[in-house]
Amino acid sequence: MDLARLAEAIDELAAAGPEACSDAATIELLQRQVARLDGYLTAAVAQFDASGAWGADGARSAAAWLAAYCGLANSQARRQVRRGRTMRQLPALAEAWMAGDVTAAHVDALSAVRTCATEQALERDQELLVEQASTLPFGTFRRSLSYWHALADPDGVEEDAESVRTRRDVYLRPSFEGIWLGQMTLDPVSGAIVADELERIERELFEQDWAETRSRLGGDPLAIDLGRTAAQRRADALVEMATRSRTAPANGRRPVPLFSVLVDYETLHGRICELAQGMAVTPGSLVPWLDQAVVERAVFGPDRRVEVGSTTRLFRGATRRAIELRDQRCTHPCCDRPIEQCEVDHVVPYSAGGPTTQENGRLLCGFHNRLRNQRPPPPS
User: Fold this and answer.
1) Assigned domain for 63 exists
2) Shared-domain flag, residues 29 and 119
3) pTM, whole model, 2 decimals?
């Protein structure tokens, strides 16, 4: 094998400059070829790992040799060896990676669910999972893989979820300069409760900053014109959370988690259980919250639908909520904004006779909704 030709090709690309390959089609092609090369390199590392040739240089492992002789960080070297071992066990995955259909991120996701309890099921279902990895957006693939893991090892995922909850921790201490330093570790449900409220208050502060700056400048400001950065607003939002907690009235109503149960064909044949942010969680992890949560059931199916009139201009009530639960985020392929930052829009515009139904509705964030409704420029 003449690797000099590969080096020459890379030299030619470098000499041409990045502007020669900066169009969308070429970027996509380059990403695919990089994935292929990464897959081939990892397969070669797997063979090197299995051969034991790294021991001739006194290394304790293939990962140690890679770190010493290839300049990799120890974590990066271990990750590459782990990927190689996964490839040896899952030939369909190896084939897809070296074809450029999947990336290292997909391999890492599959490695994470490969345990003694799931090994046989993973080998059995590898073609299905690789097909999903090749065709689904990565976030959707991760959720699908989480559900596969829950079916392949239901007891194991519940134990993992409980382990995650027991590791919850908050650290907040003053430094010698009087600056408070902190860190927190929360389980998915607790983290979602804290993050949602923090984001809500941060949004309030952003709108205040925007209005104040707009009034001062006499026009729409840029982010750099605002009085606080996003990080500073989050810090102030955390202080505001504590202030509101301290001053809450004695008879105030505590906010409660909302658990949405989706009931359809997939639910009847498997378990669909995820937070509004799209994070798949185990049913057992919701049990401690049931006595303080509101449970919402949504039934999808032609025989049990709840609709407002299809000629209504705006999506409201059960129809709107059904679309929110179905889409969960902006449906534009380049966006992942959550429900609370989205609007429900007609697929076929209302002005063109599109009905106000679940089938003709979709979530779009404000940016992509406005982008979709922009009129094309007049012909020159």
Assistant:
1) yes
2) yes
3) 0.71
Do 144 and 38 lie in one domain? The reply is yes
Cβ-contact 49, 69 below 8 angstroms = no
- Position 125, amino acid: D
> At which of 209, 230, 247 does a domain end?
247
Locate tokens 């194991």: which residue?
156
Q: For the domain that residue 364 is a member of, what is the CATH number? A: 1.10.30
Inside any domain, residue 217: yes
Place of tokens 């034991």: 52
Residue 280 lies in a domain: no
Q: How many CA atoms lie within 13 A of 85 on its CB side?
A: 15
Q: Which amino acid type is present at position 307?
A: E
pLDDT digits (tens, 9 = 90+) for 164-198: 889 999 999 998 888 999 999 998 888 888 988 99
User: What is the pLDDT at residue 30?
Assistant: 94
Give the total number of structural domains in the chain.
3
Taking the alpha carbons at both ends of the chain, their separation in whole angstroms is: 55
> Is the CA virtual torsion 175, 179, 180, 181 positive or negative?
negative
Judged on CB neighbours under 10 Å (0-12, 13-18, 19+), 43 is middle
Q: Which domain holds residue 232?
A: 186-247
